């Protein structure tokens, strides 16, 4: 099995032992906290806590490294774009201005701007490890059964499970097509120019699209032959009941959520302002 693939691996860890519904609830609470607050201390704590959770899960960084690096590049581009279109966003938020150095035209780098971009970066790094961990530490079948157990229609729950299973399938298919195209002389290596690599990558898209459509038809026929959707309820092979650790995990996230809301209300702002 290729460890660089973003897919579920069975590992004996406290994170993997949580039910899929518990992981989803915790992910939603974690995402809400990250989206609502710009408090540097809360975001910094979330980054450290997410790294600790990732270590506890025993998932190897290599398994998600390619996705992580892609998001890191996106983060850099996003910060640059924010600065280009709104170079003084930090000044407007923190109501002070401390220039560091002049760049060009109307662009001047300020301490307030750097602090604002630091908070944005912390936001991304607080949620990325948890979101990726959710994907690689959640059994799609068990996750679907957990969603159905908490009240979601089994048809929707099963659709979610198929989507989670489809992600690694797409990755494997892309890799196989890429190897086949390279065997035909299409250079996709790092030695090729970026423009050539982008151009050559289009030769992978059409076979990938057609294979995906064929896979969809196969799954649809299989589900239809098994009379999927004819009954109001269904049984689950991977069903699991909530245990003590599930309630503890949800309680921890609820406490963190309440603390972040209290701190935000006490400060009267989503932003921590060290310049006042």
From TrEMBL:
The chain crosses the membrane at residues 27-54, 66-88, 100-117, 246-265. It is found in: Membrane. It is a multi-pass membrane protein. Keywords: Membrane, Transmembrane, Transmembrane helix. InterPro entries: ABC/ECF_trnsptr_transmembrane. Pfam families: CbiQ (PF02361). This is Cobalt ABC transporter permease.
């Amino acid at each position: 099995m290729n460890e660089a693939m973003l897919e579920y691996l069975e590992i004996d860890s406290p994170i993997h032992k949580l039910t899929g519904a518990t992981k989803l609830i915790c992910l939603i609470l974690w995402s809400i906290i990250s989206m609502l607050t710009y408090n540097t201390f809360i975001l910094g704590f979330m980054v450290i806590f997410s790294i600790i959770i990732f270590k506890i899960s025993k998932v190897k960084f290599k398994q998600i490294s390619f996705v992580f690096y892609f998001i890191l590049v996106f983060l850099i581009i996003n910060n640059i774009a924010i600065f280009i279109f709104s170079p003084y966003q930090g000044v407007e938020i923190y109501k002070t201005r401390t220039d560091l150095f002049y760049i060009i035209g109307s662009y001047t780098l300020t301490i307030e701007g750097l602090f604002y971009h630091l908070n944005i970066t912390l936001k991304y790094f607080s949620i990325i490890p948890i979101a990726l961990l959710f994907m690689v530490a959640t059994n799609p079948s068990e996750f679907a059964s957990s969603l159905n157990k908490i009240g979601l229609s089994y048809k929707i729950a099963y659709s979610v499970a198929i989507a989670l299973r489809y992600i690694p399938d797409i990755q494997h298919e892309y890799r196989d097509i890429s190897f086949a195209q390279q065997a035909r002389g299409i250079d996709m290596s790092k030695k090729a120019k970026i423009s050539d690599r982008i151009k050559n990558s289009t030769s992978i898209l059409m076979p990938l699209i057609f294979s995906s459509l064929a896979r969809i038809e196969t799954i649809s026929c299989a589900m239809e032959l098994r009379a999927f959707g004819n009954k109001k309820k269904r049984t689950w092979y991977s069903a699991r009941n909530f245990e003590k650790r599930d309630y503890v995990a949800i309680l921890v996230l609820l406490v963190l959520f309440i603390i972040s809301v209290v701190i935000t209300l006490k400060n009267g702002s989503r932003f921590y302002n060290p310049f006042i």
